[in-house]
Amino acid sequence: MRITVIGTGYVGLVAGACFAEFGNDVLCLDLDAKKIQRLKAGDIPIYEPGLPELIKRNIDAGRLKFTVDIETSVSHGNLQFIAVGTPPDEDGSADLRYVVSAAKNIGRYIKNDVVIVNKSTVPVGTSERVMAVVTQEIEKRKIGCKVNIVSNPEFLKEGNAIEDFMRPDRIIIGSSSEEATQIMRRLYSPINRYRDRILVMDERSAELTKYAANTMLATRISLMNELANLSERLGADIESVRQGIGSDPRIGYHFLYAGCGYGGSCFPKDIRALQNTAGEYGLQLSILESVEKVNRAQKQSILDKIRNRFGEHLDGKKFAVWGLSFKPNTNDMREAPSRIVINGLLMRGASVMAYDPVALDEARKIYEGNSEIEFNDNPLNVLDDAEALIILTEWKTFRSPDFVSMRSRLRKAIIIDGRNLYDPADMMSYGFEYISIGRASVTGTNNRESR
Fold it and tell me: What is the CATH number assigned to the segment(s) 202-451?
């Protein structure tokens, strides 16, 4: 099939590369000329495991191309995927200016029948709006092209996006056209061969499904964080509670880990957008308001623990931070808990030395010009003379570190773990004071200042 992907952000790049891998002829459009030149040269602007190799392989095979020419991109594909950003507007609603612009361009340059596929995360009713915009442009030109609109939301996890695309749990096709539905079935047939993963529904239900999935997952996280905070007060262990409830097949273990809050571009944005949509229809989503409130407070919980241990004023104190991205296997720091914690430390007069396996360049951009925060490419080096180590992202490389070396480098043998990576009994045996989420703090029998 000939496919055009409009937008070379996270979703557009992954979708374009994966469709090309199936043998399709894919052209990706972006209006950022510098970005397109980078992509043509194989320079991928986002961190996603396996994506650079996938893109290079399909560029070399001639199946994947990039352009800034709108007319060329519209002429290329009988399938036009809209995969542009929908950032939050000032009121929390999804900003659809890029979606509308893409629709207008399709209408202005279309020459043949086309299926337009909304891959962007969009509010309910956007498919109808896209159809209206395209139809208006076609009528101006007085041409007789047939247009079908499909909602095909993405369910990609950053850090696991290629696997999610190639082996999805489900493929949602929102369509009122049997012809468009069959075209989409053919498109996805390479990954639908052994088990039917396709769920067909109307466009509005498909659009709501995307928001419903993200808000459900965010709700689980916030509920576990509330239970973790209660566990600390009651003297219970949230990790034991997690295993106890996760073993119930009606609940399961996914997204059941207590921590220092969720971040990224999806959960916060989508919760606000869905609340805004509900408000337009006279409804108040009280649970989602609470989910958002709990998450804001949870990002502050690490600062509360630091304040309880070291006092309100941290002048002259240095803290080490492991983990800057909002989750492992990405360099994405949008709404990451690390930003709340680091900013709080700096405001209270502390200095910070930080490490992350892939997000250091992103962090350097964010904190450019701030002399109170430094970054190091070695996780052990950031510990030197630090009052404590603060862990904010659950990278695998942090799970089995050299605790003896860590203890010798820290000024005080204190670990504040926002992701519950370690066993408290083990930390006690190594002589650490260990403060985590939803579990009692422990102090090693040999805990003392290392220097």
Answer: 3.40.50.720
CA-wise closest residue to 96 among 263, 262, 277, 217: 277
The whole-angstrom separation of Cα 432 and Cα 86 is: 45
Domain ranges across the chain? 2-201, 202-451
DSSP state of 331: -
> For residues 101 and 444, which has the higher predicted lDDT (pLDDT)?
101
Look up tokens 């805990």; give the residue.
447
Quick one: pLDDT band at residue 450, thresholds 50, 70, 90? very low
pLDDT, tens digit, for every residue of 282-297? 999 999 999 999 999 9
Residue 355: strand, helix, or coil:
strand
Question: Is 266 an annotated catalytic residue?
Answer: yes
Share of the chain above pLDDT 70, in %: 98
* Residue owning tokens 């909304």: 118
Q: Which runs of consecutive H residues, i.e. helices, occur in 119-202?
A: 126-141, 161-166, 178-188
DSSP codes of every residue in 211-250: HHHHHHHHHHHHHHHHHHHHHHHHT--HHHHHHHHHTSTT
Torsion of CA 196, 202, 204, 207, to 10 degrees: 20
Looking up tokens 């040269």, which residue turns up? 41
